[in-house]
């Protein structure tokens, strides 16, 4: 059986794709054997002299991936610890000679379901960027498509910055689609055809809260990184990283505004539903009050006991009808007067 089919898009080591970049040429695809040879040539003695850098993207669902990374790369222990941590908030940290990034992203078949959010882990230094995920994600695949389109990248930091901007673009698209859904719900509300749209609003609001909580970078870690970046990051890379985080903050601000709009629309729909319930309850109360005299009188006259008044009177029926009408009209007057007073 074909190994490519067995590994579901990755080779025996879990490598999905690999590229070698130089400062003046686009990325060149490499396989696992070439990556091992390239990594073996890196040493602290001449690492600063190399004009190339490497990007390796792995599938963590492959059982051999983590062992391969430990055997052939110098990723720090914090990177492997982050792979098994329960808390997966988005963050970028400076650890020793590396940057460790935990980035949450949405799946390819994202359908506005909170379960369609997964994590991408990165470890990068001056010459190597390693990315790993368990499920196919949109942003990293957009980065891979950019590399395949022969875009130029001059450092692993540029790859990270491009990835963050791709993530911001994906989030912008989600906010745009959510806005369209909210506009549709608002149109249904204005036309008094709410139906299941109330439940849809609740789902959208929960999704926006989850996206904002998971995708927003931890400000403390990001502030420390921007204040004291690694020595191998040049000033332009730090500036681009700061700018990408600012762009991402704008998207998160739009998401917060969208949450507030959903909240206001929910409150308006709840008030509208409450008003309809109050109107229905009032009508039910009026009917009950108006029917009450009829029920009392008919109950009294329907008792099989002696001494029922007007039983022998030829005009007794019409007298009772007139009495019921008068009492009902009097009750209606008091009920409607109280309503007008409110």
TrEMBL record:
SUPFAM superfamilies in alphabetical order: CorA soluble domain-like, Magnesium transport protein CorA, transmembrane region
Organism: Undibacterium cyanobacteriorum
CDD domains cross-referenced by the UniProt entry: ZntB_u1
Listed name of the protein: Transporter
Protein localization: Cell membrane
Homology family: Belongs to the CorA metal ion transporter (MIT) (TC 1.A.35) family.
Pfam family, one: CorA
Coiled-coil regions listed in the entry: none
InterPro entries membership: CorA_cytoplasmic_dom (IPR045861), CorA_TM1_TM2 (IPR045863), MgTranspt_CorA/ZnTranspt_ZntB (IPR002523)
Database matches in Gene3D superfamilies: CorA soluble domain-like, Magnesium transport protein CorA, transmembrane region
Membrane topology reported for the UniProt record: Multi-pass membrane protein
Stretches that traverse the bilayer: 281-305, 317-336
Keywords, comma-separated and alphabetical: Cell inner membrane, Cell membrane, Ion transport, Membrane, Transmembrane, Transmembrane helix, Transport, Zinc
Statement: the UniProt record of this protein carries the keyword Zinc: yes
């Amino acid at each position: 059986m074909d190994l490519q089919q067995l590994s579901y898009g990755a080779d025996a080591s879990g490598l999905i794709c690999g590229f070698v970049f130089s400062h003046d040429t686009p990325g060149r695809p490499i396989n696992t054997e070439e990556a091992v040879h390239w990594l073996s040539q890196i040493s602290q003695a001449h690492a600063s002299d190399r004009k190339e850098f490497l990007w390796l993207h792995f599938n963590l669902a492959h059982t051999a991936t983590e062992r391969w990374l430990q055997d052939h790369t110098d990723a720090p222990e914090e990177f492997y610890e982050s792979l098994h941590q329960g808390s997966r908030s988005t963050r970028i940290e400076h650890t020793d000679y590396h940057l460790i990034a935990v980035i949450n992203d949405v799946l390819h078949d994202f359908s506005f379901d909170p379960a369609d959010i997964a994590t991408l882990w990165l470890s990068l230094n001056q010459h190597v960027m390693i990315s790993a995920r368990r499920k196919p994600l949109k942003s990293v695949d957009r980065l891979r498509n950019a590399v395949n389109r022969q875009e130029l990248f001059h450092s692993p930091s540029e790859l990270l910055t491009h990835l963050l901007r791709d993530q911001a673009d994906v989030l912008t698209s989600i906010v745009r689609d959510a806005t369209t859904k909210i506009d549709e719900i608002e149109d249904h509300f204005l036309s008094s055809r709410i139906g299941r749209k109330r439940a849809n609003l609740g789902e959208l609001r929960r999704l926006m809260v989850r996206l904002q909580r998971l995708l927003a970078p931890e400000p403390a870690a990001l502030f420390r990184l921007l204040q004291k970046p690694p020595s191998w990051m040049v000033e332009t890379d730090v500036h681009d990283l700061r700018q990408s985080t600012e762009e991402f903050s704008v998207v998160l601000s739009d998401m917060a505004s969208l949450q507030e709009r959903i909240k206001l629309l929910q409150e308006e729909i709840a008030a509208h539903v409450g008003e309809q319930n109050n109107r229905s309850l009032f009508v039910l109360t009026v009917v009950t009050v108006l029917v009450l005299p009829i029920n009392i009188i008919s109950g009294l006259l329907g008792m099989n006991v002696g001494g029922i008044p007007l039983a022998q009177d030829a005009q007794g029926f019409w007298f009772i009808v007139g009495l019921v009408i008068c009492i009902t009209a009097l009750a209606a007057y008091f009920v409607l007067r109280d309503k007008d007073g409110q």
